[in-house]
From TrEMBL:
Compartments, record wording: Cytoplasm; Nucleus
Transmembrane segments: none
Protein name: N-alpha-acetyltransferase 40
Species of provenance: Diploptera punctata (Pacific beetle cockroach)
Family: Belongs to the acetyltransferase family. NAA40 subfamily.
Reaction equations catalysed: N-terminal L-seryl-[histone H4] + acetyl-CoA = N-terminal N(alpha)-acetyl-L-seryl-[histone H4] + CoA + H(+); N-terminal L-seryl-[histone H2A] + acetyl-CoA = N-terminal N(alpha)-acetyl-L-seryl-[histone H2A] + CoA + H(+)
Length: 221
């Protein structure tokens, strides 16, 4: 009885510690989501002037965006991603994609030209992922005319700054396997296969991989 009691006590203690850890993680996510503007502390990162571009960045919840901007976001997403979705078993569904991208939890980092025309966006969320507090980058989409000028890299670095400053453990994202150029882009920026990324097997093959970059201040390996 003594050994069983000791083991039971140890399991209860571990469970209590895990519950406390998850509660603390969720509290960090809740705090991050209560921010009025996650970009506010980083004034220097509100502008991008390089390679002929002169852009201003803003960060807002989906519910704070005007309908014209939402329409542009959905249109750019469709132009850039519909064909790729249709090349795998995900398929494309306008209604489901709109619901996902206009969810009340969706944050947007948007780059605009001096005339306020939007040219790039990232849809991201502060969330829990397999028990960890993370900044999940759902999308990073650019208009053709602003690509290959350093803007995508800059916006991703801004997301990392926002996420790590909010004490998220990592920035995480999903890439399609049949879009290798995008994966190469993230790998070059020090992202790696996340431990939660599914592995193909005899029963199921996955069309995507999950990449992440850890917050070095919080995660030692």
């Amino acid at each position: 009885m003594g050994r069983k009691s000791a083991k039971s006590k140890e399991k209860r203690q571990q469970r209590k510690e895990e519950i406390a850890r998850l509660a603390a993680s969720q509290a960090l996510v809740n705090k991050a989501n209560k921010q009025e503007d996650p970009l506010a502390p980083f004034f220097v990162f509100r502008s991008f002037e390089k390679n002929g571009l002169c852009l201003t960045l803003e960060c807002k919840l989906s519910g704070s965006l005007d309908s014209e901007t939402i329409d542009w976001i959905l249109d750019l997403e469709k132009r850039n991603m519909k064909a790729l979705y249709e090349q795998c078993d995900w398929g494309w569904n306008d209604k489901l994609k709109k619901e996902e991208m206009t969810d009340e939890r969706a944050w947007y980092l948007i780059a605009r030209q001096p005339d306020s025309k939007p040219v790039a966006f990232s849809h991201f969320r502060f969330d829990m992922d397999y028990g960890d507090e993370v900044l999940y980058c759902y999308e990073l989409q650019l208009e053709k005319e602003v690509r290959r000028k350093g803007l995508g890299k800059f916006m991703l670095q801004v997301l990392e700054l926002i996420g790590f400053t909010a004490n998220m453990k990592k920035v995480i994202l999903t890439v399609l396997k049949h879009n290798p150029g995008v994966k190469e882009f993230f790998i070059a920026l020090k992202y790696s296969i996340d431990e939660t990324s599914p592995e193909d097997n005899m029963i199921e093959q996955y069309p995507y991989e999950i990449l992440s970059k850890k917050n070095k201040k919080l995660v030692s390996n």
